[in-house]
Amino acid sequence: MKIIYIVPGFGGTFYCGNCLRDSALIRALRREGHEALSLPMYLPLTRSVNSGPVDLPVFYGAVGIYFRQRFPVFRNMPGWMERTLNSAPLLNLASRNAGSTRAHGLEEMTESMLMGKDGFQREELEQLVRFLKTEKPDVVHLSNALLLGLASRIREEVKVPVVYSLQDEDVWISAMEEPYKTRIWDLMAEKARDADAFIAVSRYFAGFMREKLNIPGQKLHVVHIGIDPENYEANSISTKIPAIGYLSRINEENGFGILVDAFIELKKQSFSKSLRLHFTGGMTRDDKPFFRHQIDKLKKNRLNHQVAWFPEFHPEALKNFFAGITALSVPVLQGEAFGLYQLEALASGIPLVQPAVGAFPEIIDATGGGVLYSPNTPVALASALSDLLQDPGRMELLGGLGREAVARQFNWLVLARGMTGIYRKIGITKPNNHAC
Fold first, then answer.
1. 371-401 burial, b for 16+ CB within 10 Å, e for fewer?
2. How confident is the model at residue 223 (pLDDT cuts 50, 70, 90)?
3. Architecture of domain 230-409
4. Stated pTM of the model
């Protein structure tokens, strides 16, 4: 089976669970014998998530579509100008300087993209369609539902099923101002009719998006995220100095401030003399004032020497990070559709302490690898961490259960087989004579 997976590039300045999910899927599909290709949009894929040829064109180049959207004079730019704006040097420069992932200010761009051939990016859409027709895939799978504007044209011209993953689209839209927030949801619900299938990463998020986009039950599926367990090493927790870990983009929305306040609270307790806080995951330029404020709080409480920041978060660096922590907590304010970092921690034998919001209860229930707390406040988190950190035997038990669950049901081959089962269910029967 030939699968083309369309994946937005993001610049590489922070830990991107969605990007790692996409990369793991492509590698697993290839291991299962399928011809799978990652096709980048906006920016080139970073080396940590690129799973295919590095010489592929970048579609909807970020520089060109920004100018086309922002300045009417560029909407009929000559081909040489568009090629210059979307040349590799300019896109690589944009990647290195990607300082924001906020939706505020990009509402019009998001709306235009969802309008597909009726938006300002219609020329980019036609370029993509021409490429897909040349490649002759059996299925086109897009990384998220914010790209629903592409579905109709791909189905019309390439004549293959179009599938969308669902994960955390609400985070982008929730940051928008009205009336765009309502308009974007309404437009996505309209365009959802053009997709053949949606694959959510959790039952929680499937239910959320079913309601938002009015997705018929027969079009909606759930396949949990998977990773390669062999890429992770488990060490005994009992031999480590106690340390709480945080792995995600370092910003307010992901709860880093809650964890810092919980750590300050914990350090007031007698058992926590040697307790440390380790964090990694990177940040954008927009996140830096918030990060500096958290460091100032730690300094004010004379705890800045009890924390360790790991600026690198590529796979090898993460091995060192997990080797030094005894529990992981990422107290995302409103929860997440999944949270890949949970699987990475569990595969390393590290138990989780997560708020009872979003998909976190679903994942901890399925893995047995952690504990939940409520409400999502520093005091409640500190209490849950205190109970767990003072019970090394329980930490070892939870970490072991989680590692076994990842190997059994959250590994990348289970993910790939779940995806290809859905592809076949929606009617792929070797239309282009590719092996299935």
1. bebeebebebbbebbbebbeebeebbebbbb
2. very high
3. 3-Layer(aba) Sandwich (3.40)
4. 0.88
